[in-house]
Amino acid sequence: MKIGWLLVLFVSGSLPDAALADGGAAPPNSASWSDTSGVVAGVVLSVLDSQPIPFALVRVVGRVSEARADGGGRFSLSLPPGTYDLEARALGYAPQRVSGIAVADGDTAAVGIFMIPAAVRLSDIVVTPSTFGILGEREVVTDVVLNREQIETRPHLGEDIYRAVDRLPGVSKHDITARFQVRGAPSNQVLNLLDGLELYDAFHLKDAEGVFSIIDVESVADVNLVTGGFSAEYGDRLAGVLSMRTPTPDPERSTTTLGLSLQNLTFKSEGGFANGRGTWLASARRGWLDIILSITDATSRETHVSPTYYDVFGKVQYQLGTGHLLSAHVLHAGDRVSSVEDDDTELESDWGSSYAWLNWQAEFSSAISALTSASVGRLRRERLGREFGGERTYQNLRVDDRGTFDFVGLKQDWTLLASDRLMVRWGFDVRHGSAAYDYSRWRLDFVPNTVDPLGPAFTPVVDSLAVVANPSGTQAAFYVSNRLRLGERLTTEVGVRYDRQSHTGDNTVSPRIGAALQLGPRTVLRGAWGLYHQSFDLQDLNVMDGDDNFYPAQRATHHVLGLEHRFPGGASVRVEAYQRLVRNPWPEYRSLEAEIEEVPEEGPRDRVRVDPTRHASRGIEVFVRREGVGRFAWSASYALAEAVDEIGGAWLPRPFDQRHTLSVEFAYRPSARWSLSWAWQYHSPWPATALAPTVGTTADGTSFINWTFGPLYADRLPAYHRLDARVVRHFPVGRGRLSVFLDVYNVYDRENALAFDYRNVELVNNPGRAPAVVLNRGVHPLVPVLPTLGARWEF
After folding, report:
1. What does the alpha-carbon distance between residue 598 and residue 341 come to, in Å, rounded to a whole number?
2. How far apart are CA 316 and CA 328, in angstroms?
3. Is residue 713 a contact partner of residue 656, using CB atoms and an 8 Å limit?
4. Could you give the CA distance from residue 743 to residue 728 in angstroms, rounded to a whole number?
5. Domain-embedded: residue 27
6. Are strands 614-626 and 632-647 parallel, antiparallel or unpaired?
7. Among 752, 754, 741, CA closest to 785
8. Alpha-carbon torsion 312, 318, 323, 324, what sign?
């Protein structure tokens, strides 16, 4: 498509982010925010030296209430009058319970929790390399974490959690889409989980490659991104896992959050019920770019664009005794796009995603626990496209694409902590799905007549396609994984996974091995090897290309080795080498010009089928950071990598292959109410396929421009680099807080390229000389300099 309206979309603003950390002000669950009648305030300390234990988790036994201690070990809980038991957990310490805490009306109960150092719990050790925690606290043996404060105060476009990861090593994408590649693998090879449920193609505005995800960052408590070597509990994806978990609200306090910008209107409300045994959370987001564009008349009369999107999320959870937690979740997202481009292309699209699921978390004892999940969902689409020619005197393209995908599933995961040295996990996942396709395309092309000199110079040729299919099938999976601590330094995890797909006939077995070796108090060596299979999903038939085949499962082999070291001054470094080799990959349909077309069927000349026999990705990544010490924080990463396909016996680069990638971030907090940050990134030029115009002649001597492609991915776009900056200011407003930010994307207005632009071409007929083609090749630019002002009010 002509991406002008997408740039207008970005320029129109960005939703204010989640509540910005205030560097020492009272946290949301502290007494200063509470409407309840009593407070428990305390500190978590080590019994050996009385030093505070940062980021310990303090729970109220038998209730949903919990609080995370700050960097000084301090915590606060708002509770109604009564007597309570507290339990504290922290990495490297044995769980500690304090009983009989009396809370009186209007009083504050002071508590000191002293914890005894212990070997790191087996379940807390990170065995898998290539693991990044996002938004969560440092509760695992790794220092490569993006916490909530970083996400909310560092530059990133919009409030999208998927866009917050694009500066992590191994992640690549272009500015317009929220879909990211993982070490050269496309986004559909990444498993996306929300509270344990798999989300399918979880993006808004899919006609523009998915500009935003359907997950509002306000609804996310923590995220775990694994870019390779993941364990046997995760299956049916080749490249990585993005696992998101929603927050547990404070049951003693109702909170409302409003966000307003030129892009979105957001609302979130949360609180508790049943005397603290239950909580609820509801959030909604509505993009109103359609209204802004109509008010400002941002598009011309020849071009009309009305993009609308929204999503809603809800969760209710209830504590049954001390060991059983029930939760019900719903997520719904919808999109509508109506556009008329200046090239007489029209699109009407309507997309929807609906999910509902129930989770039961059960702790039957201190040694055995289980998570059971039952789910149901539906995806749908309606896409109507048209293209006119000759001053709209005739129609040369008509597309009618309708489809649905329905599923129902049951999943269960068990954990048995047999001893402090052996943990066994096992589980199953059964899902039944059915899809419906109703696709038709009619296209009129004019082909040069090079045979009959008496005929017209160009002959009309009609191409039509119709696909109607109703596939269904059941997928079943089972896994078992044993984590074993061998001595005090070495922890291993060995697992195997079995997957069966009825609609493809796949029966695959995937063994996996991981290990973590503690070389010293601050140094960990991790490694992983495994086989990974991905089946062809019911909802992913390439009907647009006339391909209604379900292909056999792809298989990938992962090799990952990483070394991580934490320095005494607060800095850490991680170096990791990886290789992923994919055998029997599926055919891919690619647009060689790489320009985003809202109706892809309108440009048939550049759409080709690519049949690789193998994929290979390999590289070395270095990540250095210093966080949480003083007013300054910084991080830097570098990756040397390649992602290639074997096609016709030759190895060729993949579309997002970038040899060198460099990222630098710097943050400064002059006071508790201010934060300033900037981020710069660079990557090597992406591959491109050159398009060469030549002069062709019809049988009657008429000259025309004939387009031919050069060797596949033999050209390169210009190198990419960009600087972003953000300033955040917090204001106390009554009993709430107002956060205001200014974010500048692409500060020095670098014209980065999405693809080459071949529209500036002219056929010149000079008397006495042969016709010639004059081409001034430009680029389709990505997002220009983009200042964004936003605000968010929590009360």
Report:
1. 10
2. 5
3. no
4. 9
5. no
6. antiparallel
7. 752
8. negative
Q: Where are the alpha helices (DSSP H) in 443-515?
A: none
**Residue 289 is inside which H or E element, if any?**
helix 289-296
What pLDDT digit, counting tens, does each position of 471-491 carry? 999 999 999 999 999 988 899
206 vs 349: CA distance, rounded Å: 9
CA–CA distances in Å: residue 164 to residues 13, 193, 626, 724:
17, 17, 18, 13
Answer for the pair 401, 465: CB distance below 8 angstroms, yes or no: no
Burial class (CB in 10 A: 0-12, 13-18, 19+), 609: exposed
- Residues 201, 329, single domain; the answer is no
The residue type found at 693 is: P
Which amino acid, one-letter code, is at 198? Answer: E
In a shared domain, residues 83 and 161: no
Residue labelled with tokens 């440009």 = 603
CA distances to 141, 442, 445, 458 from 461, in Å? 64, 11, 5, 9
Q: Is 672 left (phi over 0), alpha (psi -120 to 50) or beta?
A: alpha
Q: How many domains does the chain have?
A: 3
Among residues 231, 160, 142, 220, the alpha carbon closest in space to that of 191 is found at: 231
**What pTM, to 2 d.p., does this model score?**
0.85
The angle formed by the CA atoms of residues 10, 13 and 16, to the nearest 5 degrees, is 125
Predicted local confidence at residue 13, as pLDDT: 34
Q: Do residues 23 and 669 make contact, with C-beta atoms less than 8 angstroms apart? A: yes
Check: CB of residue 282 under 8 Å from CB of residue 231.
Answer: no
Q: Report the C-alpha gap between 400 and 386 in whole angstroms.
A: 9
Same domain, 11 and 94: no
Q: How far apart are CA 413 and CA 372, in angstroms?
A: 7
Last residue of a domain, one of 118, 144, 164: 118
698 and 634 belong to one structural domain: yes
- Of 681, 725, 690, which Cα lies nearest the Cα of 709? 690
- What does the alpha-carbon distance between residue 774 and residue 455 come to, in Å, rounded to a whole number? 28
Question: Is the Cβ–Cβ distance between 687 and 654 less than 8 Å?
Answer: yes
Same domain, 68 and 136: no
Q: Which amino acid is at 793?
A: W
Mode of pairing for the β-strands spanning 278-287 and 304-320: antiparallel
CATH of the domain at 94: 2.60.40.1120
Is the separation of the CB atoms in 497 and 475 below 8 Å? no
Name the more confident of 135 and 411. Answer: 411
Q: What is the pLDDT of residues 100-155, one digit of tens each?
A: 888 888 788 889 899 887 766 676 677 788 777 665 544 334 444 555 566 666 77
DSSP string, 160-190: BGGGGGTTSTTEE--SS-S--EETTB-GGGE
Please name the helix (run of DSSP H) or strand (run of DSSP E) that holds residue 479, with its range, or none.
strand 472-486
Q: Is 337 helix (H, G, I), strand (E, B) or coil?
A: strand
| Shared domain check, 141 and 76 | no
d(CA 286, CA 784): 25
